[in-house]
Amino acid sequence: MITNVRIIATTTKNLSVLVQQGSFREDLYYLLSGLTIEVEPLRNRIEDLENLVDTYIKLYCDMYSRYHVLTSGAKKILMEYPWYGNLIQLESFCDRMILSATHRTLDEVFIKQLMNELYPIIHQQNNREKIIVYKDPEALVISEMLEKHGGNRALVAEELGISKTTLWRHMKKYGISNKYRV
C-alpha cells in the first residue's frame, strides 16, 4: 500500500551549515531540501500587511460582535511597525486591539499605548533590566517627572518650563495621559 505524505517544515536556521557542523542529520536535510521556498518577512511585504490588518480587524470585529475603524494615523503606525513575529504577532495584536478598544475609532494614541504595553523596549542598566515603555526620550522625561511629583501636572509643567496645556498635549501624544488623575 502506497500512501502520499507531504511534510512541511519551517526554520529560521541555515540547515546546510548545521549539516556541515554535524548538528543536523544529512539524510533528513536532503529529504527536506527538495523544495525550498523562502518567504519574505511581513515587514517587507507592505501590500500584504495592509490586507492582513484589514482582514484581522474584520475577523475579530465579527467574532466579538464589535465595530471599530482605524484612523489613517493608526494605520500608518501599524504599517511602519516591523512585526518581528510576522503573522502570529500581527494576528495576536489585532485580537488584543479589538478586545481592549473602548472607542469605535482606534487612533494613533491608542495604538501606541497598546504597542508600548505589549512590546516594551528593555535596556540593561547597572546589571538590572529597566523597561523603557516610551520610545521617545521626551516621553521618558515626562513620565519620570510625573513619577517624581506623584502625578502633579502643575509641578511637572513648572519644572519643564512649559504650560499645563502643553504638558497635557505631550502626555496625550505619547499615550501617558491616563496614567495619572491628579
Indicate the topology.
Layout: H1 15-21, H2 26-32, H3 46-63, E1 69-70, H4 72-80, H5 86-100, E2 105-106, H6 108-118, E3 121-125, E4 128-132, H7 137-148, H8 153-160, H9 164-174
Parallel strand pairs: 1-2
Antiparallel strand pairs: 3-4
Helix pairs in contact: 3-5, 4-6, 8-9
Describe the structure.
This protein has 182 residues and is mainly alpha-helical. It folds into 3 domains: 10-39, no CATH class; 42-118, Helicase, Ruva Protein, domain 3 (Orthogonal Bundle); 121-174, Orthogonal Bundle (Arc Repressor Mutant, subunit A), CATH 1.10.10. The chain is 54% helix and 8% strand. A two-stranded parallel sheet has the order 1-2.
What features would you highlight for this structure?
182 residues, mainly alpha, Helicase, Ruva Protein, domain 3, Arc Repressor Mutant, subunit A, two-stranded parallel ribbon, two-stranded antiparallel ribbon, 8% strand, elongated
Care to give the gist of this entry?
The protein has about 180 residues and is mostly helical. The protein contains nine helices and four strands.
> How are the strands of the biggest sheet laid out side by side?
1-2
Shape: elongated
- Fill in the CATH topology of the largest domain: Helicase, Ruva Protein, domain 3
Write down the domain tally.
3
What is the CATH class of the largest domain? Mainly Alpha
Strand content: 5-15%
Averaged pLDDT: 84
Secondary structure category: mainly alpha
How helix-rich are the residues, as a percent range?
40-55%
User: C-alpha Rg, in Å?
Assistant: 23 Å
Sheet with the most strands? 2 strands, parallel
Distance separating the two termini? 76 Å
Count of DSSP E strands? 4
Write the H/E string, N to C.
Answer: HHHEHHEHEEHHH
Q: What CATH architecture of the largest domain do you see?
A: Orthogonal Bundle
User: Please, how many helices?
Assistant: 9
